[in-house]
Amino acid sequence: MKKSVCVILAISMLLPLVSCKDNGDEGGGESGGVDFYITEELDRIRLDYIYAFDDNDGELVLVGQRNETVGSDNEIDVDYLVYTFDGDGNVISENELELIGDSADILCVDIRADGLAATVQRDYLTRELYYAVYGKDGGKPAGSVLLGVTEDEIISVSSGLVHDADGGFYILSNDKISVYDAKGELLFELQNDGVTINGIYKTREGGVFAARYIPSKSGCVLSEINLGGKAYGREYVIGAGAEYITGVGEYDLFECDIKAVNGLAVETGKRREIINWEKQNIEFNTAGQINNFKYVAITDDFDIFCLKFEYADEGVFTGGTFSLLRFKYVDSSRADASEGYAPDGRTVISLSSVSSEPLINAAVTLFNKNNTEYRIETKTYARNVQGSLEDAFLELELAATRFNLDLIAGNAPDIMVVNGLPYQSFADKGVFADLYEFIDKDPDVDRSDYLENILSALETDGKLYSVPPCFTVNTLIGKSSELGENPGWTWKEFGAALNKKPDNIRPIAGEMTFSRLFFFGRAFPFVLDSFIDLESGKCSFENEDFYEFLKQALRYPAKVDDSEYWIYSGFDIGDPWLMGILLSDFYTVKRYETALFKEDIVFKGYPASKGGTAGSSILPGARTAVSAQGKNKDAAWEFVKLLITDCQEVAGKNGFPIKISEYDRLMKEAKEKLPPTLDVVRVPVDSNNPNGPKHEIRIEPNTDDDNRKVFDFIKSLTVFRNGDVTITTIVEEEAAAYFAGQKPPEEVAAVIQNRVSLYLAETG
């Protein structure tokens, strides 16, 4: 069938390797040898989307979608396919599914206990929903039932349809769970009543549980659906951010998240780690990561099958291919390993980070693939959090604290990713080794190969304690004709320039939700270096620059009505004075100059007393250090060396690389063509109606002058964003009294000076 569709991909990416794990109960538990998995890459399957993937008595069943662009009008021909594989991962059959009608598509799929694919389908003309079941040979559905829910009610999650042991099925919609018997008769419904339901799952014995986030219980629970009582029954506390698949052996369910797969026996509460993704350096794509775990299947022998999605055309999506991976389980009786050594005989070196870093994960995988002497095991301290943004930030703070406590206890890893840590305090206490010592004695690495200003900005007392493989830049841009050709200004100069503009403008365009305190809190980390020298541990807030900073924040309202909030694309804001951007490539400037400002721009940055580009902050990506207390410093350096040498092309897809030679390639690419989706900007015809009709503006590739402008700006940067959550919190707390009219700026600055000085003395 043919129709125009918009496909959203949320697919897991798993990177293959040979690996091991300690297989014990959480919190201690069983002792013994080391269980491990050997990874094999099997068949490749051309699909664009996966609906379901499951093990059924030794056979794997997969239902997916394949799209083909046809005709001059670029219509998309959509095929729905069911695959079966044997226990070794070999394809047994591939068959097409015929839907209930030409105007139908599939919303969600479940593999029943008998191995047949059951679907919920939508007729997008009538908006009716149907339940339909297919045989293993595909073709027309063996039967279909019109459901009593509409398209608007169905929830768009992969775990929206499951079956119990008797063939009854359960459908998760936006406001309820609908329970049907095997004939498709509606039995009852469970209303959500304001509780978020993340998915419904079937157990080894055919029971069904709903994963619910209940604020009153301060977390997530698995709630059993009781058919007899037509209500929720037993509840079990679970972690946030996980997906569940049907268990085997003694486990009712397998809990899958970005860190591991854990076996869960709901009756006893037993929970055991089956495979640890981090220790095996398997990288998941962060986009849509919760739904990704539906594409994991575990056999009765504890072999784990996964699907790795591969992009075509250098990372630009032009059609998808999945590789089927098998993690072959090897029990502890076949492993001979002692502490510090992997089953393959390599020495283990440790890497720790506050939160997961995709670029680091990819580099670890590459290191482990190629290094015959060492293998890296990773540890991430931040846990998955479901709740508010404040909860997520709190977890990052707690993760940094857990990291710090491990260091105090003498459990220093060999390698640290320092993002999120109190970096300067750690550097002052001698936690990190000087990377210059490794660089200067390594014949394969030369300081002159790297951006001198970036290395210099990273130095502490002439020593280089950490290095990022790449970085981005946070700055303010505006018209050169209004703001001049030179970057940088003070808060007084900012105010003088703003006084020439109409009173009712937002100084930084698009910041529709900014109150004065919010603006102040956002701007402060970018100008922190104007008031604090973290190396010397001294601060200076009692000065005209800081008073002027406070004064300019008064340009924003004391409080912002939530009704003012709207999402903007960056090109929906009329004629801006300033625009905040996160610069990470050579294309962005040309897009803003062509489609938004319509003339040359200047990298003005946030106002800062140091002038120049001090108000434009370098944001390091995956800043990595070698532990001074580590047991394997030379091996740790080999990993850091890989980051800043062999991984620089990949780093250039995540920001600006630090290796100078990469820039010739990046600037050459920017002159040849823009990446797809970046060569056209759609701008509202009426700037006061961002959601109205739009016209297209074509963006041309860069000229040599365009490239030189960006490169010269990058080479002029001198300030890393050394955000400190504690300092920012102190400054915001005291500034609030000024914004509320309770204290003059001099008194507020004096209190901040005192509090920050004490904090710096305590942590220095």
Features:
764 residues, alpha+beta
Overview of the structural elements:
Helix content is 23%, strand content 31%. The radius of gyration is 28 Å and the shape is globular. The termini are far apart. The longest helix has 20 residues, at 389-408. With 764 residues, the chain is of the alpha+beta class.
Please report which band the strand proportion falls in: under 5%, 5-15%, 15-25%, 25-35%, 35-45% or over 45%: 25-35%
- Rounded Rg: 28 Å
Main β-sheet description: 5 strands, antiparallel
- The pLDDT mean sits at 79
Shape: globular
Task: Report helical residue fraction.
Answer: 10-25%
Helix run count: 17
Total number of strands: 39
Structural class: alpha+beta
What distance lies between the first and last C-alpha atoms, to the nearest angstrom? Answer: 68 Å
**Low-pLDDT sequence parts:** 1-34, 285-292, 312-318, 333-341
Assembly state (oligomeric): single chain
In short:
This protein is an alpha+beta fold and 764 residues long. It has 17 helices and 39 strands.
How is this fold's topology laid out?
Blueprint: E1 2-3, E2 18-21, E3 35-45, E4 49-56, E5 59-70, E6 75-85, E7 91-97, E8 104-111, E9 117-123, E10 128-135, E11 138-150, E12 161-163, E13 169-172, E14 176-180, E15 186-191, E16 196-202, E17 208-214, E18 219-226, E19 231-238, E20 243-246, E21 253-256, E22 260-265, E23 270-276, H1 289-292, E24 296-298, E25 304-310, E26 321-330, E27 347-353, H2 358-370, E28 374-380, H3 389-408, E29 415-417, H4 423-428, H5 435-441, H6 452-458, E30 470-479, H7 480-483, H8 491-498, H9 516-527, E31 532-533, E32 538-539, H10 544-553, E33 578-583, H11 588-597, E34 601-603, E35 617-621, E36 624-626, H12 633-644, H13 648-651, E37 656-657, H14 662-672, E38 680-684, E39 694-698, H15 704-716, H16 725-739, H17 745-763
Parallel strand pairs: 27-28, 27-29
Antiparallel strand pairs: 1-6, 2-3, 3-26, 4-5, 5-6, 6-7, 8-9, 9-10, 10-11, 12-13, 13-14, 14-15, 16-17, 17-18, 18-19, 20-21, 21-22, 22-23, 24-25, 25-26, 29-36, 30-33, 30-34, 30-35, 30-37, 31-32, 38-39
Helix pairs in contact: 8-10, 9-16, 16-17
